[in-house]
Amino acid sequence: MSSLCQKRVIVGVTGGIAAYKIPELVRRLRDAGSVVRVVMTANAEQFITPLTLQAVSGQPVHRSNLLDSDAESAMNHIELARWADVVLIAPASADFIARMAHGLADDLLSTLCLATEASIVIAPAMNQRMWLHTATQDNVAVLVNRGIVVFGPASGSQACGETGPGRMPEPAELTESLAALYGTRALAHTKVVITAGPTHEAIDPVRNITNRSSGKMGYAVAQAAGEADADVVLVSGPTQLPCPDGVHGIRVTSALEMYQAVMNEVSDADVFIGVAAVADYRPVEFHKQKIKKTSEQLTIKLIRNPDILATVAGLDDPPYTVGFAAETHNVEAHARAKLMRKGVDMIAANRVGDVDIGLESDENELIILDRAGAKSLPRTFKLQLARNLIKEIAIRYRAESTNKNSRRAHR
Predict the structure, then answer these.
(1) Where in the sequence numbering do the catalytic residues fall?
(2) Inter-axis angle of helices 50-57 and 22-31, to 10 degrees?
(3) Which terminus of the chain is more exposed, N or C, with fewer CB under 10 A?
(4) Distance (Å, whole) CA 232 – CA 251
(5) Which residues face 191 on adjacent strands?
(6) How far is CA 48 from the centre of its chain?
(7) Domain closes at, from 182, 206, 223
(8) Domain of 109?
(9) pLDDT digits (tens, 9 = 90+) for 57-75
């Protein structure tokens, strides 16, 4: 199956003669199983018509004007940004690259690029002197540092009659490169069990003890593991998030239910990633009827919940086990202590509390720790951060698997 199967791809078309290649690009993406929506700048419409791209994509084309009521009724621009798995800008003109680098948002495509959590890929196309100009090179460097992927440009003869770098890669090459972006197969032939979200510990039929976890990070990790070709089981506490495509979801409510679901799945797992914010304690007593307000004080006695992460790490033949640590202070020190105390292979730690990332946010940053050291994963949208994390986990899991096999061979 193509790694682009069921991927939601936005093709952003900017002004350039290479726009004539975009119908072929859209056709190839659809043949690979993608769902494609096209967003055009005003300049792009000088080279190719929206009707042509609507015909080949099978979807309404989104045009440049942010205040176009027809475009907004077809799909709100923020919803369009949320819909995408990847935004491929082809051709990407020098002007549009410059506007992206400076964070401008004066039309639909530029606004979408700022609003989306999806991967962004650009395929530059311009005169070779424009491509080689210091300003363009500096702008591209800014985008690369932000995590934007650049395909090309290719070298060869150009429409202006010059020869050199600046040609947009051919549609077949762009499709293959985009497929390779998702086709790392870093976790192929592995089963990965992931927990996500909060747990709710019932006090009575209408009240519970919980926390601020939104589940966004755990769901992003599940999607990223699926993109790496793993067989993913997501055990989720209560959230409003949809299960990622291709992921087997198991919905639970309490910590005890999450513990049981994990134990049912983890025996044949290769990797376990405990992202969920599992309640440490639950009420000793569940009141079958709503507790009435009859006194100034109410005491609820709590008992510890099972430690899912430590239990998995302590199995006779445990999977490669990754925990998360949300800390309000001394993040690395507390995470290192948790790594050793629970006997896990890796801890991904982040700061919460008086910061605008982590819990409930769309962005996060992590410090990943194992017995060999620590590495920082810089702040970015949670899905991109999850992809970066999965790459690190895959590298360490493969190395650990090799070491285990070597030890067994020498017994």
Answers:
(1) 160
(2) 10
(3) C
(4) 14
(5) 231
(6) 32
(7) 182
(8) 8-182
(9) 999 999 887 655 555 555 5
